[in-house]
Amino acid sequence: MENEAVSKNFIEQEIDKDLAEGVYDHVCTRFPPEPNGYLHIGHAKSILLNYGLAQEYGGTFHMRFDDTNPTKEKMEFVDSIKEDIQWLGADWGEHLYFASDYFDQMYECAVKLIKKGKAFVCDLTAEEMREYRGTLTEPGKESPYRNRSVEENLRLFEEMRDGKYKDGEKVLRAKIDMASPNINMRDPILYRVAHMTHHNTGDKWCIYPMYDFAHPIEDAIEGITHSICTLEFEDHRPLYDWVVRECEFENPPRQIEFAKLYLTNVVTGKRYIKKLVEDGIVDGWDDPRLVSIAALRRRGFTPESIKMFIDMCGVSKAQSSVDYAMLEYCIREDLKMKKPRMMAVLDPIKLVIDNYPEGETEYLDVANNLENEELGYRKVPFGRELYIEREDFMEEPPKKYFRLFPGNEVRLMHAYFVKCVSFEKDENGNVTTVHCTYDPETKAGSGFTGRKVKGTIHWVPAAYAQKAEVRLYENLIDEEKGVYNKEDGSLNLNPDSLKVIGNAMVEPSFEGAGAYDSFQFVRNGYYCIDAHDSAPDHLVFNRIVSLKSSFKLPKN
Questions:
Q1: Which residues does the annotation place in the binding site for L-glutamine?
Q2: Averaged pLDDT of the chain
């Protein structure tokens, strides 16, 4: 048992303690995003953590939209968040909720606080409130409206609800302690006037609760036991506890904070991503250069690879950054045994086998994945004319170059030995065609041992090749400069974050492949069919990740 306890993270240890001491007799967790943008990799950690805890303890997982701010919320974001969470495998079952469903109860809670003398209507402007608030070292000053009578506060609050005041004219504030060392406890705002149409409640309300007031009430109404959130809410915990206590909820939830997931040299801030989208620098919230969950899915990452990554990151109280290379390591590990290894030529030149019979085609048996026999074989046509990579031929090769050059012999993958006999160039001096001869005795799998070659290159049959567009993605951020420009706070963008290859050639076996299908291109990397722009007659592939990695697993 001791070993088991040690291997648990600190949140699991706290939950075990609460269950052992009878604080709760079950576990209920939730994921409560605001629908004001797309979720990113950091949210994936929170989703999988909350869902995983509910699963581990045989409890319940709730999905709740914290939609208390209609100024920034859209149904597009609601729909994208649902899709992301389902894709990650977190199942909320029948437990899908909206904070706005509880607006009536929140209003009643506010009235209760007024009646208890714990809340008051304040007329200070936002600027005056900032002045009265104090600093980290100096206490704040009490509002001149703090001692209004309960009757007056009830009347004014009702008038706020009835639309008698303009936006910003009045707010409802908690009455706690203007001298508290925790600024969040200095009579925080609970409600503000906002004449806006809400995506869920329409025009029913013109006052809306603040997040710090709404959130604990939502958790309490739903019977959440453990409100798992990130460290920036640690200073808000006393207010969270104050709200559920003063609103007199039974079995109030308990807030526990953990460290956010930070990835090196990536953009996760919604404000920055929104600007990148609006400025046309990326082609939407799911552009494969971003780390929104939708972008990772479109790029070709799998739920399994993201779960592996989150597990490797672990759960702690200490803030730290994780190298993006670790995420790439996880997708390679996930795909390498699952996906077929196909032949694709990104920068094609023609290879003609001069002594191969004209008009003849033979079909070669090609293993889909040499490390996983269960993926079986496919037939690939082979003929006199092929495409090979431009970099697989050199007129004057350096030492240790074992691919094609005049007089040298290589193996064509899954096929025959070929020897380069000549080549052709265009008027600009670029090689266009390489001429070879082949040795029929050397067919792969025939048991030929007469001689060996040092180089093996891949190819695509010219007569059956399908043209494809290939998108090579690099980091959106200039890694040498870091994410943000220190002078003006703008993003240091990498001008070479996307390279589009329009004339790649792929083998015919991709027929029937659809959106999000992924493959290894032999000797090159892992690629995924783009969900937006690919079509059967115009294949578009996104590079998920190259084959090589700089990432090394940490030694135990």
A1: 66, 211
A2: 94
